[in-house]
Amino acid sequence: HPVRGGAGVAVTGEPGAGKSAVVELACARASGLRILRSGCDPLATPRPLGPFRDLVADLGPLDLDATLTGACEAVYDSLRSEPTVLVVEDIHWVDAASVEVLRFLVRRLETMPCAVVLTYRDDEIGAQHSARTVLGDFAAIERLTTVRLAPLSVAAVATLLPDAERVHAVTGGNPFFVAEVAKDP
């Protein structure tokens, strides 16, 4: 039987692995869906509910200064209103309140037409990181999955550059660095 409701994908990899590029391509192919993109900032003290504050213009009036429960309900109600892709990038910089809203949403995906897409650098999420709980949900809940982006192989580098083994050795197969070398060998 067809899957109803939403789903979630967490895209992880090292800096330059192509997380944002993969998400950009997926969003470009998502026709007929409202695309909401936000991200977390690299601040020493993250802005409470920062990713959701950035989306207020798209989500409609949200009282994010109300209780956390109120913020969860407001975002949930707005996302249920139409088929949506919600992208929150760089959750390795996320604040604890945003983690709670994300957990609230991903645990209710079966009730709304929404795809939640998160990106993060796995090497920056330690055992005590606040994002660990929502990433645990991605490991445990059936509608959620994690995609790990691996470095490019030597064969993949060879499709861009003639000296693939040398470029791969220098870049470690990191797509960003390979693309930079391809621009200016």
Structural overview:
This protein has 185 residues and is an alpha/beta fold. The protein is built from 9 helices and 5 strands, in the order E-H-E-H-H-H-E-H-E-H-E-H-H-H. A 5-stranded parallel β-sheet has the order 2-3-4-1-5, sandwiched between helices. The mean pLDDT is 90.
List its salient traits:
185 residues; alpha/beta; five-stranded parallel β-sheet; 39% helix
Write the layout of secondary structure elements.
Blueprint: E1 7-12, H1 19-28, E2 34-39, H2 50-53, H3 56-59, H4 68-80, E3 84-89, H5 96-106, E4 114-120, H6 132-140, E5 144-148, H7 154-158, H8 164-171, H9 175-183
Parallel strand pairs: 1-4, 1-5, 2-3, 3-4
Helix pairs in contact: 4-5, 5-6
Helical percentage: 25-40%
Q: What's the assembly state of these chains? A: single chain
Give a quick account of the main beta sheet: strands, pairing sense, barrel closure: 5 strands, parallel
- State the order of secondary-structure elements, H for helix, E for strand: EHEHHHEHEHEHHH
Summing up helix and strand content along with how strands pair, one would put the structural category as alpha/beta
**If you compute it from the alpha carbons, what radius of gyration comes out, rounded to the nearest whole angstrom?**
18 Å
Number of helices: 9
- Termini distance? 51 Å
Total beta-strand segments: 5
Global geometry: elongated
Give the strand order of the largest sheet, numbering strands 1, 2, ... along the chain. 2-3-4-1-5
The overall pLDDT, averaged over residues, is 90
- The residue ranges in which pLDDT falls below 50 over 5 or more consecutive positions are none
Strand content: 15-25%
